[in-house]
Design a protein that fits this description.
The chain is α/β, with parallel strands linked by helices. It is built from seven helices and eight strands. It is elongated. GO terms for molecular function: nucleic acid binding; RNA-DNA hybrid ribonuclease activity.
């Protein structure tokens, strides 16, 4: 432990020394759980949990550090519910866009993520609604039956929560939602602040840059891991 505590460098915002010490303790604790016959997390989720613990510890030691507003923080869904955060990127010059979606369970654990490049789309409202539709597709893919869709676009969320009254230009997409919603035991649409939707935002931005659609089941892509850590950190 003395040697580990002298390691140099950083992993994102966490010093390597603190990360190594927390990892050593966490792996020891998991070994105790295995001895007791308790199932432990996958290596990928274990690594994420270690980074969350180290981040919380580090932030707690910083005097007068930035205070995160409660309503700007990502929140876990209720028991048995999968929360799917979605977001979209849109470019007026090319009328093209991209969508990102990430699914997490009631413990906050990563389930899956996906992103889609959309070469032709009429506007930003259509892009945001398409992101929610694709989030529903992700839920179907991973077999979730009780879901909560969260978006930072108030127009899209309000349109879906008032689905019977909507008569705007996106009515065809809204009608499609009505059919998709029938396949779930429960489904809700919630608005969140952009600060609580950074993972989905990064997924959309990344696929807009690469111009290619991607999906991840269980395996967490490196470019969003630090954002997942931030969402799970309580400080």
């Amino acid at each position: 432990m003395e040697i580990l505590s002298k390691l140099q460098g950083n992993d994102a915002e966490v010093p390597t020394a603190e990360l190594a010490v927390v990892a050593t303790w966490y792996i020891w604790w998991q070994r105790r759980q295995i001895v007791k016959g308790v199932k432990v997390q996958t290596p990928e989720k274990t690594a994420l949990a270690i980074k969350v613990l180290a981040t919380n510890y580090l932030r707690s030691t910083i005097p007068k550090g930035p205070i995160r507003k409660n309503d700007h923080m990502w929140r876990k869904p209720g028991y048995g519910i999968a929360k799917i955060n979605v977001d979209a990127s849109f470019q007026y010059e090319t009328l093209s866009g991209a969508c990102g979606a990430v699914a997490r369970d009631y413990r906050g654990d990563f389930i899956a993520a996906a992103s889609w490049f959309v070469p032709n789309i009429s506007g930003v409202d259509s892009a945001e609604l398409t992101a929610i539709r694709n989030g529903i597709y992700l839920a179907t893919h991973i077999g979730c039956n009780n879901i909560e869709i969260e978006s930072d676009c108030s127009f899209a969320v309000n349109s879906l929560n008032q689905v019977d009254d909507y008569l705007g230009p996106e009515v065809a997409i809204i009608t499609e939602y009505k059919q998709l919603m029938m396949d779930f035991a429960s489904i809700s649409f919630r608005h969140c602040y952009r600060e609580a939707n950074q993972v989905a935002d990064e997924l959309a931005k990344n696929t807009f840059t690469t111009r290619s659609s991607s999906s991840w089941d269980d395996e967490i892509p490196d470019f969003i891991s630090h954002l997942l850590v931030n969402d799970m950190s309580i400080i």
